UniProtKB/TrEMBL annotation:
This is UTP--glucose-1-phosphate uridylyltransferase. Keywords: Nucleotidyltransferase, Transferase. The lineage of its organism: Bacteria, Pseudomonadati, Pseudomonadota, Gammaproteobacteria, Vibrionales. Coiled coil: none annotated. It comes from Vibrio maritimus. PANTHER family: UTP--GLUCOSE-1-PHOSPHATE URIDYLYLTRANSFERASE.
Length: 272
């Protein structure tokens, strides 16, 4: 039912310099796969077939990755190396990839609005590839699609974070419907230390209804002078229903060296 998944991927990745001087941060490898491929895997597993990627200058390798490489494939054809391309070939065959370039970096809300033409009037998922989520039985997006079928409104994934880390995230508050589900009444983007409405932080998985685009268009720049998706979702919450979901699984913050290294170590343990 949800076929589109949007990947905002235009950022400069300055936290990873110099590695990201000429390589998109989304292409940083976790063992043998680039970060963004894990997000695409998760979307495909959740039944999505249209991957809409918001790119920027210097990000062409993202497009090349989700395409054939005839020269390379010809070179390794018939050798035992061919096997290493089996997964990516099947991923490319399972989905359609479309791209749009974000010319200016004006915040996550602006990045999502840039993808509007690729999404149309459909509910869609958003994956921030930096947040790598793993769960053995059911991916986080798949869990969220199930909830969307039930609530038919915007769903945001949240997790509890220590109180001294709430300032790094969008933070929600609301009415608990169950242990895992909260009807959102408040959301603050990166609250100042000690002012967060709770310790439930939004992580990079969203399912958004298409009216979000109009809300973003009417959202003034917020935290850091940027157009924040958190502010636009709060408008949806005050007009109707937004559900926050404490997902099952583990998130690695691959927007930081610590998170990416932790994921490398745990993945290597499984791989070896
Ligand atoms: C973005 C969102 C924030 C969310 C976070 C999750 O922030 O603006 O609300 O909690 O992603 O990773 P960023 O990390 O891009 O600054």
């Amino acid at each position: 039912m949800i076929k589109h998944c949007l990947f905002p991927a235009a950022g400069y990745g300055t936290r990873f310099l110099p590695a990201t001087k000429s390589m998109p941060k989304e292409m940083m490898p976790i063992v043998n796969k680039p970060l963004i491929e894990y997000g695409v895997d998760e979307a495909i597993q959740a039944g999505m077939t249209n991957m809409a990627i918001v790119t920027g200058r210097g990000k062409n390798s993202l497009m090349d990755h989700f395409d054939k490489n005839y020269e390379l494939e010809h070179q390794i054809s018939g050798t035992n190396k061919e096997e290493m391309l089996v997964d990516i070939r099947s991923l490319i065959d399972s989905a359609q990839f479309t791209y749009i370039r974000q010319r200016e970096m004006k915040g996550l809300g602006h990045a999502i609005l840039t993808g509007k033409q690729l999404i149309g009037d459909n509910p869609f998922a958003v994956v921030l590839a930096d947040d790598l989520c793993v769960n053995e039985t059911q991916g986080v997006l798949e869990q969220m699609v199930k909830l969307f079928k039930q609530f038919r409104c915007t769903i945001v994934a949240v997790e509890e974070v220590p109180n001294d880390e709430t300032h790094k995230y969008g933070v929600i508050a609301g009415e608990h419907l169950s242990d895992d589900l909260i009807r959102v009444t408040d959301m603050v983007e990166k609250p100042e230390q000690g002012t967060a409405p709770s310790n439930l932080a939004i992580i990079g998985r969203y399912i958004l209804t298409p009216d979000i685009f109009e809300h973003i268009e009417n959202t003034e720049p917020g935290k850091g002078g940027e157009i924040q998706i958190t502010d636009a979702i709060l408008k949806q919450a005050s007009n109707g229903c937004v559900i926050a979901y404490r997902f099952k699984g583990k998130r690695f913050d691959c927007g930081s060296w610590m998170g990416i290294s932790m994921r490398q170590i745990t993945a290597m343990k499984t791989y070896t």
